[in-house]
Amino acid sequence: MNACRGPRTPCRLRSVMPGWGYARGVEGPLTDAFGRVHRALRVSVTDRCNLRCRYCMPAEGMAWLPGDRVLRDAEVVRLVGLLARMGVREVRVTGGEPLLRPGIAPLVGRMAALPGVREVSMTSNGVLLDRHVDDLVAAGLARVNVSVDSLDPERFAAITRRRDLDRVLAGLRACERHPSLRPVKVNAVCLRGLSEPDVLPLAALARERPYVVRFVEVMPLDAPREWTRDLVLGGEEVRAIVAARWPLLPLPADRPSATATRWAFADGAGELEFVSSVTEPFCAACDRLRLTADGQLRTCLFADQEADLRGALRRGEPLEPVVRQAVWGKPAGHAIGVAADPAPMRPMSRIGG
């Protein structure tokens, strides 16, 4: 595979003409021009959110998608089913905040029941999780990631622009009632100059509770486009802060396409993960696709092109050729560190986490 020199070396974009090398009617796995086989799908079910995290959304004035542009439940299920028949095995439900979608538990259940789907998981900010988690697990939810950037109420409010930390922690405790969800994963986005005091308290959470804490480098996905490289608190730096207090040992990746490196506390007290998309890109092994809330298929967070599956679906046009052509044209890697402005045309809340 020639997409990159290795799974964690920086990737440079290679131009691929849409459809180049793609033969209509071809069957088999969803493979791109660099040999990557795609088995994971992130499905955004809404662009709406009840937080206003500074690395994602503006404080005010966010325009939401009109209702007629958002995929209906039956359309979501049909598109996920199509991609499952084409080799997708893991589905992650995202937003915005997915728990704002009416009828989210039945929708999860319909996706979990699709032939070929092995697992449905969810990424949530946790604010509404305590009232929904029982129904979600009953419907077939297998795993959950909860975003918690700080355990300090003031810093949490500074980052999210809301005072909902207690509700998020209640959501985490509600997840503990369900052994099938363990380990619950906690996502913490790290911002230089703000997050350093939170590193050790969050790491301690992984030692004390049945959680895997994941430290995530901030990426240029904010709606105000205020991201700069200076905001990135790198995974290696965060790991050094933790290791100075509690020695860490590396663990093998749980699969070749894993986005995170795994580390265990040397005393066996728990586990951490580091998602270092900026400083240690993992593009060469990427097997992920994204379906936005308005039915656009994206092959990369930072792609500048989308395939309009909603339009094709509503017009009654064949969908598989559109999917295969889009996947074949997936770039070698993202443009962080390469392009002057690496931000995609849409912010994260419009793409799906």
Largest sheet: 12 strands, mixed
Radius of gyration over all CA atoms, rounded: 19 Å
Counted by DSSP, the helix tally is 10
> Distance between the terminal alpha carbons, to the nearest Å?
27 Å
The structural class is: alpha/beta
Share in β-strands = 15-25%
Residue share in helix? 25-40%
Uncertain parts:
1-25
Describe the structure.
It is a single chain. The protein is an alpha/beta fold and 353 residues long. Helices cover 26% and strands 16% of the residues. The chain contains ten helices and twelve strands. The protein has a twelve-stranded mixed sheet. A hairpin with an 8-residue loop joins strand 11 and strand 12 (307-308). Helix 3 (129-139) runs parallel beside helix 5. The longest helix is centred in the N-terminal third of the chain and has 13 residues, at 73-85. The protein is globular and about 60 Å long. The two termini are 27 Å apart. The model is unreliable at 1-25 (pLDDT under 50).
Topology:
Blueprint: E1 40-44, H1 73-85, E2 90-94, H2 104-112, E3 119-124, H3 129-139, E4 143-147, H4 153-160, H5 165-175, E5 184-190, H6 199-208, E6 211-217, H7 235-245, E7 248-251, E8 261-265, E9 271-275, E10 288-291, E11 296-298, E12 307-308, H8 309-314, H9 320-328, H10 348-351
Parallel strand pairs: 1-2, 1-10, 2-3, 3-4, 4-5, 5-6, 6-9
Antiparallel strand pairs: 7-8, 8-9, 10-11, 11-12
Helix pairs in contact: 2-3, 3-5
